[in-house]
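Kindly draft a polypeptide, keeping tokens residue-aligned:

***
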Amino acid sequence: MRQKRSKSSLKGMRWLGFVFVLSAVLVAGLVWLLLCSESFSGGIHNVVLISIDTCRADYLSCYGHARRTTPNIDQIAGQGVVFKNVVTAAPMTLPAHCSMLTGTIPPYHGVHDNLDYRLAESEVTLAEILKDHGFVTGGIISASVLSSQFGIGQGFDTFNDRFEKAGMASLMVERRGGQTTRLALDWLGRHKDERFFLFLHYFDPHFDYEPPEPFASKFADNLYAGEIAYTDYCIAPVIQKLKELGLFDSALIIITGDHGEMLGEHGELTHGYFIYESAVKVPLIFKLPGQNKAREVEELAGLIDIVPTVCGLLDIAPPPRVQGKDLRPYLFGKSILSNERHIYTESLIPTKYNANTLLGVVTDELKYIQTTRPELYDLARDPQESENLINQKPQQARVLQDRLRKILEESVPASIPGSKTLLDEQSRKRLESLGYVSGKVAEEFQFDQSKEDPKDMVDLHVSVEKIHHLIAQKRLAEARELCEEMLSQHQDYYGLYRHLGRICFEEGDKRKAQVYMRQSLKLNPDQPGLHFNLAMLLAEQGRYDDAVDHFKEVLRLNPNQILAHNKLGSLLYAMGRFDEAIKHWQISLRLKPDQPEVRNNIAAALAQKQKRLD
């Protein structure tokens, strides 16, 4: 009996041991599932998205830069997931951010340039998605190119796009990273008890490269690297504040860039023109709550993947029109067995010079660029894109061309209501002072190989960018000399005459300025800003009828130009044409009701009209 009990006891112990082991395995499995779950909706309390403008991936030390440029970002990377091969949809600030915040590419959301575009209200941004799910949303941007007038602020409860400097707010175009950080720390302090989404935008790496000390001295041989290092320094207090407030461990932190910088490669000094790797390859780092081990992902990703990934982590259905992919499997160390990705990127800026578009598609190994002389590069073997393989690999080029055509066919709508806007002259000058080239891009997505190749026009583009900077710095003689040099080679480019007109005007030679303005308008009549300037000049000379004609051209091209309505109203009033003056002032008031001076003008015109009748 004792022996039976012993065997029974032994059997029971074995059974209990089995149950214990099974329970341990189940618990371990459950823990693993919880830690590796593809939904962090319960673990993520806040979302912080940091965008570094003009940020080449290879200038961050966590991406392999030889110098320690980004020690603070490196710490986040050391606890997070670093995507090593990320492509932006466009090497321009506004289009790239529109893609970043909507998960769609420019042919879909309709924004292709920093000038004369705005994100349509019909587009759904990450801020709108999170706001609808209970998040308090805040945005702090560092340059006027992302101001709310361009539609990028939709969905944000607070969107700080005002730049203050001793009464010069209207003239400021950017703020330094230190000021952006101070605003961010204040915002975090005020919203620490709420579930929030904070979007931070730093602009410092953008040209001109003027990092403050000690970064200017430390990186005297590479001021662009110094700006990257300064931005990293500015990000550190934001991370520290999250820790001090007890928010770091429950926050999803994303650090990325909107586009890169060419730095002279392929003949381009800054960005926006070409779509080579230096301009379109950007960093992307995800830091999840509770994550403390680094992981690198070599597979291709895009800025358009941020929205669907955040939505997936929060167990939110992304908008059906999102074109990016959910990167969650990579975040949890899983490989994705799927069809090879094809990431779209574009530049329409060459069309400002009557050159062809640059439409690109990128895979893990190859990049195809559709233009007058198409290009194909083996990125794995030739990351500098120095050898065009279009003739050596025609079959692969055709496959990628077909894929690009399919992407465009699926993405380019007939029209996007609200994706266009026309800037007033003051806003245009602010953006031009940052080096952005004025002029309307041509939205051409057909594969036309009859136009000038952008590669042959890059010298003109670089010169025009330099002319913008010289004029902004009041170095007018140098700007004039460069304009005249370029005119000897490009007599049909209207922009050079436009700049010469502005130079002459600022030098006081208004007669010559008028000659250049008219020549520019002869080559390209659809320039509302230039019509406005010429109208003002003609009115000053007492040539009222001609001035009225040019004001009317402004309003034909941009019916909502408030300043043009007001100036034309004043001119018509001076000419005794009271009814017409009142009409334009009334339109101005409909566009912007809070204008007491305009109401006074209408009252004065009505009084003058009555006096004439009496």
About this structure: Confidence is low (pLDDT under 50) at residues 1-39, 166-171. DSSP finds 22 helices and twelve strands in the chain.
